[in-house]
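Before we proceed, please read the two lines closing this message. Report back on whether the structure tokens fit the sequence:
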Amino acid sequence: MYDLPGTDPGREWVEVENTGAAAIDFSTWKLFEANINHKIAAVGSAELPAGGFAVIADSPEKYRADNPGFSGLLFDSAFSLGNEGEPIVLRDESGADIDSVSYLPAWGAAGDGNSLQKAASGSWVSAVPTPGSATAAAGNQPEPQPETTGPIADPDTTSTIAPNPVKNPEISTHSSQEEVNVSYEKPQFEITAGRPRIGFVGAPLLFEAKVTKSKGIEPGSGVRSVWSMGDGTEISGLFVSHAYEYPGDYIVVANTDSGGAHAVAKTNVHIVTPKLGISIYQGSVRISNLDRGEMNVGGFIVEDSKRRSILPRDTIIAPLSSIMLSSAEAGFGAPEGFIRIAAPSGKIFSQAPAPGEPVIALPADFDAAAFRSRFEELYKPNR
């Protein structure tokens, strides 16, 4: 339950099920979120029985206020689930990853009272929460009822069709009187492709096909992964790096094989064009973020006519803010000829003359004429 109706702070929760054959001391486990291993403290009994359910609440008091009828196992932890999605991992007492999910608001349950629930197929769906018992998605759903009491007229033909078979999966057109049964293959080999991320045009992102489950795989079986980067590029390897040429939303898919087993994982990346400015201020180099979101310029190149420096990994500039480069570290005491900043791919985003008066260079696609026209329209002398 990552996005409740109204305000979220203190009201978010995660439900777990002990699918093992023995009880566990759940207070020894961790909930990994926001790059932190959060402790899980028992509110009452710490023992989670085999087949049992438990709720991990950010605030047990607020959880009980929201769910007054709940009488199951409750645990306390400190976390804050992002409404825009993020990866969360359940780790046992040894620190091993037991289960994980990188959820997205596009999956549903965004402030509508539903929660994201793991279905029997392993996929995640949005449904009414049932804390303390099997989720509706996993098979505890009431007998489906038709949406109407009679057939629905098809607007395009003269025939009639049954109520929506997608929303009522037990309705089928097969000829036998036998009920439809559905079975799913339980994966013995699982991987993760990492969390959803924001990247920048021309700047490489790193991806790892990390094995999270390998039951029944022969020891020493080679793990091979092929990545579809979502922009028509295919790369092989467990660890890969890729820079996107154009902005957009890309779905990255990793197909991985080991010992005859196959696993698929995917993640999402949002690529934007950096809006950067560079200038000379008091003899030093200033880099400006002209956007309303933070910008990571780690790996970007700063250079003049004679020298070049690569910015350290995870050099992050706050929205609509600037940083000054250390002259000693960057080696730019007095830039010569020009100063510019470019992506690791070499794509130049901003350039300014040097030396001379302090001047900020706007992005190459900045429409100066349109800006001047709009400025004059807004600030005419008679206004």
